[in-house]
Amino acid sequence: MAEFGENIRRAREELGVTQQTLANQLYVTRQAVSRWENGSRYPDLLTAKRLAASLDTTLDDLLADDDMHTYPEVNPVIEYPLYKRIQTALFSAAFMVNLVQFLWYIGFMVIEYRFMLDWERGGGVASIVTSAVITGALLYGAVKSARDSVTPRTAARIATIIIGVDILNQLVLQYFNWRNRQFDINSITGLSIYLFFDIAFIVLVLVFFLSEKPRSPIPIYIVAGINIFMVIAAYTTSLLGAVGTAQITKFMMTSSLRIFAVLLIPTLFIYMTAVLYRKRRLAKT
């Protein structure tokens, strides 16, 4: 990557162009050009093409073989300022909602712990640990996004952590339900469907974000959309069952918070998938 930055600097100086002038031509900041030249960051593919044209050279002349191997790791998913702000806002919103949910879980356990059965305590601890890991992963993503360093590999890593730990949590909760003899054929069916779509989502995200070639985002849209639909359907069914009962207040405090926490995550990855797909398509034109 150092060679790529050196090639940019050399070509710019041969033309007698300052970093600020080059930045103005590419609609980026001078700091961005400086990061490219010192080897700490790559431009996105579309900007790299424009960069080569502005420097009166070709992208092949700027990029060495070693650069091409490391490009997917350090190239951010989203480069444009507005898109980056939306991504950061989604990460931040998901983090804040999950943080509130995490704190609620802790408060609930503190208040209700002595009244719980052993299997309920086990499920509560599992939910707290899961919520802590997911909240931490989202905070990591928000910080990386604010620093313009959410690469495709980073996005795939965050998705794997979030969905993976949630899968483990569901298995643990079902284990405690089984210990309490609350595990029946309906539970098995529901868990199987849940695991199928979560595992499918992880696989699709890994294939899409880690691929060096443009791949269709439609499978991710479909699986994420189905997950969103199932969450909303389950929430609606539970809400209708709670209306008119003494549980409605508790339901609105817990389930409503959880649905926002759950829905923001697939929304975030649908957005990043759409932007990355568009960027890759533009880079090929």
Explain what the structure shows:
This protein has 285 residues and is mostly helical. It has two domains: 73 residues, 434 Repressor (Amino-terminal Domain) (Orthogonal Bundle), CATH 1.10.260.40; 204 residues. The protein contains twelve helices and no strands. Helix 8 runs antiparallel to helix 9. The two termini are 24 Å apart. The mean pLDDT is 83.
Number of strands: 0
Gross geometry: elongated
Query: How many domain units?
Result: 2
Mean pLDDT: 83
Query: What is the end-to-end distance?
Result: 24 Å
Regions with pLDDT < 50 over 5+ consecutive residues? none
Helix content bin: over 70%
Task: Put the structure in a nutshell.
The protein is 81% helix and 0% strand. It is mostly helical. The chain has two domains: 73 residues, 434 Repressor (Amino-terminal Domain) (Orthogonal Bundle), CATH 1.10.260; 204 residues.
Question: How would you describe this structure in keywords?
Answer:
single chain, 285 residues, mainly alpha, 434 Repressor (Amino-terminal Domain), 2 domains, elongated
